Amino acid sequence: MKLVVEVVDAHDLMPKDGEGSASPFVEVDFQNQLSKTKTIPKNLNPVWNQKLLFDLDETKNRHHQSIEVSIYNERRPIPGRNFLGRTRIPCSNVVKKGDEVYETFQLEKKWFFSSVKGEIGLRIYTSQESETKAPRLPSPPQPPPSNTPQPPETSASSSPLPTITHIAENTDLDCKTLSALPKAEILHISKATTEQPEEKNSAIAETSGGIPAKEPKKSNKEPVKVRAAATQLVHQHQVLKQPSLPVEKLPIPNGAPYTMHTANPPAHSSDPDDFDLKDTNPQLGERWPSGGVYGGRGWMNVERYASTFDLVEQMSYLYVRVMKAKDLPPSSITASCDPYVEVKLGNYKGRTRHFERKMNPEWNQVFAFSKERIQSSVLEVFVKDKEMVGRDDYLGRVVFDLNEVPTRVPPDSPLAPQWYRLEDRRGEGKLRGQIMLAVWMGTQADEAFSDAWHSDAASVYGEGAFNIRSKVYVSPKLWYLRVNVIEAQDVVPNDRSRLPEVFVKVQVGNQVLRTKIHPTRTANPLWNEDLVFVAAEPFEEQLFLTVEDRVTPLKDDVLGKISLPLNIFEKRLDHRPVHSRWFNLEKFGFGVLEADRRRELQFSSRIHLRVCLEGGYHVLDESTMYISDQRPTARQLWKQPVGILEVGILGAQGLLPMKMRDGRGSTDAYCVAKYGQKWVRTRTILDAFNPKWNEQYTWEVYDPCTVITLGVFDNCHLGGGEKPTAANAARDSRIGKVRVRLSTLEAYRIYTHSYPLLVLHPTGVKKMGELQLAVRFTTLSLANMIYVYGHPLLPKMHYWHPFTVNQVDNLRYQAMNIVAARLGRAEPPLRKEVVEYMLDVDSHMWSMRRSKANFFRIMSLISGLFSMSHWFGDICQWRNPITSVLVHILFLILIWYPELILPTLFLYMFLIGLWNYRFRPRHPPHMDTKLSWAEAVHPDELDEEFDTFPTSKSHDIVRMRYDRLRGVAGRIQTLTGDIATQGERFQSLLSWRDPRATSLFIVFCLCAAVVLYVTPFRVVALVTGLYYLRHPRFRSKLPSVPSNFFKRLPARTDSLL
Predict the structure, then answer these.
(1) Which of 575, 702, 554 minimizes the C-alpha distance to 641?
(2) Bigger pLDDT: 133 or 123?
(3) How far apart are alpha carbons 689 and 667 in whole angstroms?
(4) Which of 702, 711, 689, 829 is nearest to 769 (CA)?
(5) Angle at 738 between CA 734 and CA 744, to 5 degrees
(6) Which of 203, 399, 809, 982 gets the most CB atoms within 10 Å of its CB?
(7) Strand, coil or helix: what is 874?
């Protein structure tokens, strides 16, 4: 592995040669490896375009390494050099080849008195192959050490991996994980990762992050007793226990028997306490129960085993891996056999696919049986020959005693399969043929769990078998594509007798934008307009641009077109302009049938464009109120993670039936969690109102002021389980959603709560069940956390070049469509209705209920000011004489010592904060029906909220709702008019709209200026305060003179029509 530092150029360097110039060269230091560029004589804006290569050891942690780039002036004729500046780039921001972009870095001082200015432009990336340097490099002053560590040869780079950009970008995170573990564990993990190289770049790299090696020494009693080891075990799980696809899929079948009264729970609960958050006490990290039914040294004994899953209840499973068979006996009729394997445990049977005419078949299929549902102490594996007519032929069997089955708990290596001789039905003799099997007892942490056949899902077949598995998804890497249409030249209309009215239409995928029509008819129009699109890696769409002529309001002629791939455009990280380019337009409609016009190819119109991919923005695909990721697109701009979020999805309770199956209600529930670019989907539990998933997932946290969203859905794609004509057959039904804001969580504390799944229906708010979660937020550095709280929420480009509100809404809608389309192509797909519900696609739609809720939220905020004014009024009215006297004393003290005003204010807020600490919330916030105005909402308002857009209601209903909206808007109009009236009265004080009022006011201002000039400020403040705090007997019930004067001032209301 090589680290490539391409030194491009520098700008505005400090002159150092005494003649107003400098002869700069660049020296790069990486891990005691020094290399420098050639010297550019007499140039303060040098251009090198030179690549410097360094050896990069992949086994070392790059989390704390940095690259130091220094610029020096070469002195002549006396040998020497002058320092011009330096910059340090952390290695955690280095990307792979193909993702590099041109970056500029401000030069820094080496000493306090150094005179430094300017900046340097670099491209930094890693490369697998060795690159040749364009110019010959001079030898550095001292050669690099001969004992420079070379990266060990691994097979990870040669193993075929799926080309997913955002997964490949996070492959260096395993180094962070190794740095967080003790040395003994690092050696163990390094050995394991060498044995499993192709697991290194799996999608779980998105979730790995640096946990500090030094854990806090606090003892948090029993629930958090395993905290110190838990964080390390989580990373062992991330590094070691990774299958070939995204992992951490830990679904548990629900084996509890069901009673009839839970199948049809009440549709709506009248108890408001039923909507509250409830504390739970799950047995997190529970080991297998002591004592077994069968005893002995097998998998049901009293031993205790370690686990990486400390936020879920551990569940035991019996795994059977059927690898292959050999030397099977042929049929006497066909002289061959069509073998398959049947695995039987009690009443549960699972079978592999069959092969036609194959004597040595290979299956490599895993079967999983829940311990809770095991009804036998013997496991039987049958090998049979499939027959077209009649019963299948028996070829042999293998029998296992469950007391002799070994136990495997990750990070143990997988159990090696063994060859077993087939025996007859009675077990008295051996038959021809052997089968390779591996049988072990494990938990949901086993990597074979996610792709295994499960005994509780035996009724699912076909495509439905893939749709019930748990998976981890990664959102596509989104870019903003900015197309700056500058001008066009030599635009020739189809009708040569007129000049064209030209505009440009640009299309990227399904996104179409156009410029304004040029105000004048010309063949050389000038627009200089920006059109912004959303694009996703890998770039599959092309930029299709057409220049069109507005002939009539209903007719546009295409004058030229061009199609450009997106990967040719420059990626920029900041606001610096990119280079513009001219593109020749193809004549629209020119084809093989128009041979007489081919000579027109010698002349073509052209268009001037400035196109770039914006890497400094965060592409919004979710509502800004519930945003889960705020990082920019370019990985070079990412900061270090500030924490780790661990979520254990335990299960759900009391789910309502979502569909009918065999004449009774049924629910096939699964849970989806979304945070940042990582989506997780649990396994589908079939026909269960109290499903148990017990799956644990981990995310890196880059900003604590973010939200994780979890949704529960009913799976309607089980391969024939539902009727095709059913209303919900094609879409997974929503059961409910939960949001947890990370900033409301205390660090290192495990939150175990049952969240109500509240959904708003046309009939009102309804509780669909409860979701049981275990959440833990771990902070990595207090300094980084304080640093994050003082910086903007979004990247700098959102403030340097902000988008308009309409642009943000349109781009977010396009980003949601792209994410939904890409995730829908996965296997199993994360369907469009699920993605849209998780991303709140309809959050911008009008709702009378939401408008009321927001209005009362504003009133609750203003109520504090109203309460303060009422309290001050009671003080002025002397309702409580003691309080009024104390306020007078405090006022006199502050007047006499004005320097105590601000300290007193801040000390008062400090004491209030300390007092409120006793009453701080002990659980995360959840969906509040009262705050949402969902309990007292009118049925017609709910019907309006669930109406389609455009409306599908009758004209009478639409007219009634329109009149109601006019009434609400009339009250808002009156309120805004009153506010405008008060503001215009202030303006009329000096505008001479009322000459007498303005004359009185300016005379008053002159007198006030003289009085305030000759009177000390303390006296003025004292007199003013005592006047407002005077006793009621000195007050009049009539309005004051200033109030009367202000209300008589004119406004512009008399000029309104």
Answers:
(1) 702
(2) 123
(3) 6
(4) 689
(5) 170
(6) 203
(7) helix
* Exposed/middle/buried for residue 853 (C-beta within 10 Å: 0-12, 13-18, 19+): middle
Q: How many C-alpha atoms does 851 have within 13 Å on its Cβ side?
A: 12
DSSP state letters, 553-565: TTEEEEEEEEEEE
Closest by CA position to 742, among listed 670, 825, 643, 819: 643
- Which of the 8 DSSP states describes residue 108? B
Rg (CA), the chain: 36
User: What's the CA gap between 671 and 649, in Å, rounded?
Assistant: 8
Distance CA 742, CA 223 (A): 20
Q: Residue 229: pLDDT above 60?
A: no
Strands 570-572 and 606-614: parallel
pLDDT band of residue 156 (cuts 50, 70, 90) is very low
Mention every residue, 6+ apart, whose C-beta is less than 8 A from residue 684.
251, 457, 467, 468, 668, 669, 670, 715, 718
Q: Rounded to an integer, what distance in angstroms lies between the CA atom of residue 969 and that of residue 963?
A: 10
Give the DSSP letter string of 165-215: HHHHTTTTHHHHHHHTS-HHHHHHHHHHHHHSGGGTTSGGGGT--PPPSS-
Structure tokens at 704: 């604590």
DSSP single-letter state for residue 106: E
Which of these ranges, 212-221, 557-566, 981-990, 1015-1024, has the smallest mean pLDDT? 212-221
Q: What is Dmax (Cα atoms) for the chain?
A: 124
Helices and strands, number each (H, E), in the chain: 17, 39
Q: With contact defined as beta carbons under 8 Å apart, do 320 and 439 qualify? A: yes
What confidence tier does 308 reach under pLDDT thresholds 50, 70, 90? low
* Geometric angle at alpha carbon 878, from 874 and 884, rounded to 5°: 90
Q: DSSP state, 793?
A: S
For residues 20-40, one letter each, b for 16 or more C-beta atoms within 10 angstroms of the residue's C-beta and e for the rest, the string is eebbbbbbbbbbebbbbbebb
Distance in angstroms (rounded) separating the CA atoms of residues 365 and 322: 5
Q: Return the DSSP state at 274.
A: G
State how far the Cα of 616 lies from the Cα of 1012, in Å rounded to an integer.
Answer: 53
Contact 774, 645 (CB under 8 A): no
Write phi, then psi, for 485 (nearest 5 degrees). -85, 110
Q: What's the one-letter identity of residue 208?
A: S
* Strand spans (E) along 689-789: 692-701, 707-714, 733-741, 750-761, 764-779
- pLDDT-based confidence at residue 474 (cuts at 50, 70, 90): very high
SS3 931: coil
**Secondary structure, 3-state, 417-485:** CEEEEEECCCCCCEEEEEEEEEEEEEECCCCCCCCCEEHHHCCCCCCHHHHCCCEEEECCCEEEEEEEE
How many CB atoms sit inside 10 A of residue 637's CB? 19
Mean pLDDT in residue range 401-423:
86
> Any residues with CB less than 8 A from the CB of 645 and at least 6 apart, and which?
675, 698, 699, 700, 701, 708, 742, 775, 776, 777, 778
Residue 239 and residue 189 in contact, taking contact as beta carbons nearer than 8 Å: yes
Rounded to two decimals, what is the model's pTM?
Answer: 0.73
Q: How many CB atoms lie within 10 A of CB 812?
A: 21
Lowest mean pLDDT among 55-59, 199-203, 266-270, 938-942: 199-203
Which strand (E) or helix (H) includes residue 121?
Answer: strand 119-127
Mean pLDDT, range 529-555, rounded to an integer: 92
Chain mean position to CA 435: 46
Q: Where are the alpha helices (DSSP H) in 721-847?
A: 782-789, 797-800, 805-823, 832-838
Can you tell me the mean pLDDT for 873-882? 86
